[in-house]
Amino acid sequence: MKKFVNDPKQFVPEMLEGIALANQDKLKYVPDYNLIMRTDIPRDDKVSIVQGSGSGHEPAHVMVVGRGMLDAACPGDVFAAPPMDYVYETAKLVASPAGVLLLVNNYTGDRMAFDMGREMAEAEGIKVGVLTIDDDVAVKDSLYTVGRRGVAGNFFVIKAVGAASEEGADLDELLRIGQKVNSLTRTMGLALTACTPPAKGSPLFELGADEMEVGVGIHGEPGRERRNLTNADAIVDELLEAVVTDLPYDSGDRVALMINGLGGTPISELYILYRRAHQQLADRGIAVGRSYVNEYCTSLDMAGASLTLVRLDEEIERLLEAPAETAIRIF
Amino acid sequence: MKKFVNDPKQFVPEMLEGIALANQDKLKYVPDYNLIMRTDIPRDDKVSIVQGSGSGHEPAHVMVVGRGMLDAACPGDVFAAPPMDYVYETAKLVASPAGVLLLVNNYTGDRMAFDMGREMAEAEGIKVGVLTIDDDVAVKDSLYTVGRRGVAGNFFVIKAVGAASEEGADLDELLRIGQKVNSLTRTMGLALTACTPPAKGSPLFELGADEMEVGVGIHGEPGRERRNLTNADAIVDELLEAVVTDLPYDSGDRVALMINGLGGTPISELYILYRRAHQQLADRGIAVGRSYVNEYCTSLDMAGASLTLVRLDEEIERLLEAPAETAIRIF
């Protein structure tokens, strides 16, 4: 296994400790519940925003805690939902009179943990909303879901509700905004290689030297089809067709376009994909209003990428433009 | 070859086109000379800052063009220096009465191209300064250099002179600042896997399943030693010892600490390395004033990382904190 790791059991705690050490003025790590939270919340006038999920998708979600994004993230172990009592303890730690909004990507394990964590928190009088994200168009009812999976489009929901919560939006308003963004967001991904979980030490699945997995999930779940590798433009055309026709996005629309790396693909290749997607959208009469080319939701060291579109309106674009801070940054 | 690529010959131009399309308001791509430049320069009162190098190290340097960073980048093909006439044409395009500062990582091919490009520009009356960066402590006189190699520490030189140039510093002052930052910056890297250049289609060198290359160069050049893979903490301890003792950094120093991914390593693992480095610096009485955990200077899809320290003083810290914009970003 070619990884920077000590004890695989300590992979997540050591990463979280690193995040907190690199952001000591703004973030803290709470080892008892394996969570990362802002040091300046809860605030009485602000709904606290929390997301949890399995680890291995970094920067999602533990590295997008910060002003205008998440107030806390409670990750599970690699590719494992967080324990329900950790969700509950996280909700308690960030609880504000304005309430707590729990964001959940649609995987059965995560939904169960968050539903139970919510019940436990509500039993203590905490006001809780739950919002489920399911932007992946590849498959319905997958290996680990009923319905569609939540993947990189999740970033836009976090960004929008994070910004609105800083402006003082109440829990109902945040649920409306989050549901709207989710309803206008679609993603599809593609893997060139499998990923290797630290505790397994070998690739999670087999993919031949000339094969790619179209519509792959972020835990290596099967997608729509496994077939021979094609070139970058053909790959973009296929992802784009699947995404555009699903909502559908129409001529005259203005969109955010995200090319998300899955962990092992260099950013040079992501811009080659971006180029084609931008050009093909222009040919369809769809204008790119905002561009996102980086890693947002990965699958450990998997080589691959996903393409996300969000249909923009004035409200969404304003919220996406609002200032924000995260552990992941350049400067 | 598991890459998103069309024609390998078009790898760099298509990437540059993507960068420009994603930043249409701020950057432009000039296909004739394979360069990326800001749309709002040259400015009469500002020295223009340019860096070139081989491609394959992204985000360095084509993705760090922007306000407070580079004004232009003229890359060569993958792992190849830019042609001297492209350096010259770039200098002409960005030439300002205040002059042009050319930043060069210390590789023989790059230095030759920049020295000749400088002569051609000076022959036309353009005021040009050249600053060489050589932060890599691993080896002296390597495969492609006389003296030390320039690697990820380069980011700090760009950031400092970019900020100072926005404040109106003249060419001599920028040379002083850049030389100072370079003189206080040290880096060492380590590879877990080789990288695969698109035009070659296979790994550039062989590294056994249990081996690592300590002190690797960003083109896969041999480092200090090839030996059996150890755990993350032991790797950090070795890199840190080599870097700390080189300047040396002493108890009481305040530093910037960068953990730079080499392209194929997920950010989760970079934070595991960061944790140990931060703790070990604290044990040595060295305080981390600024943290950088991301990809800054890569080697295509190589799994690996480098560790950089910069000794901070008031001037450097102020320049590193100044606002800046680049093509690579999160929001």
List keywords for this structure.
homodimer; 331 residues; alpha/beta; Hypothetical Protein Tm841, Chain: A,domain 3; 2 domains; 6-stranded mixed sheet; globular
Task: Itemize the secondary structure elements and their pairings.
Two copies of one chain form a homodimer.
Chain A: H1 11-22, E1 27-30, E2 35-38, E3 48-55, E4 72-78, H2 84-94, E5 100-105, H3 108-122, E6 128-133, H4 154-166, H5 171-183, E7 185-191, E8 211-214, E9 225-228, H6 232-244, E10 254-261, H7 267-283, E11 287-294, E12 304-311, H8 314-321
Parallel strand pairs in A: 3-4, 3-5, 5-6, 10-11
Antiparallel strand pairs in A: 1-2, 2-4, 7-8, 7-12, 8-9, 10-12
- Quaternary organization: homodimer
Q: Biggest interface and which pair forms it?
A: A-B, 60 and 61 residues
Q: What's the CATH superfamily of the largest domain in chain A, by name? A: Dihydroxyacetone kinase, domain 1
Give the count of helical stretches of chain A.
8
Instruction: Give me the count of strands of chain A.
Output: 12
CA radius of gyration of chain A is 19 Å
Q: How much helix is in the residues of chain A? A: 25-40%
Mean pLDDT of chain A: 96
Structurally, the number of domains of chain A stands at: 2
Structural class of chain A: alpha/beta
Percent in strands of chain A: 15-25%
What composes the largest sheet of chain A? 6 strands, mixed
Strand order within the widest sheet of chain A?
Answer: 1-2-4-3-5-6
Kindly describe this structure.
In chain A, strands 1-2-4-3-5-6 form a six-stranded mixed β-sheet, sandwiched between helices. A six-stranded mixed β-sheet of chain A has the order 9-8-7-12-10-11. The mean pLDDT of chain A is 96. In chain A, helix 2 packs across helix 3 (108-122) and helix 6 (232-244) packs across helix 7 (267-283). In chain A, strand 1 (27-30) and strand 2 (35-38) form a beta hairpin. Chain A has eight helices and twelve strands. Chain A is globular, with a radius of gyration of 19 Å. Chain A has 331 residues and is an alpha/beta fold. Chain A folds into two domains: 8-183 and 322-326, Rossmann fold (3-Layer(aba) Sandwich), CATH 3.40.50.10440; 185-313, Dihydroxyacetone kinase, domain 2 (Hypothetical Protein Tm841, Chain: A,domain 3). Chains A and B meet through helix 1, helix 6, helix 7 and strand 11 of A and helix 1, helix 6, helix 7 and strand 11 of B.
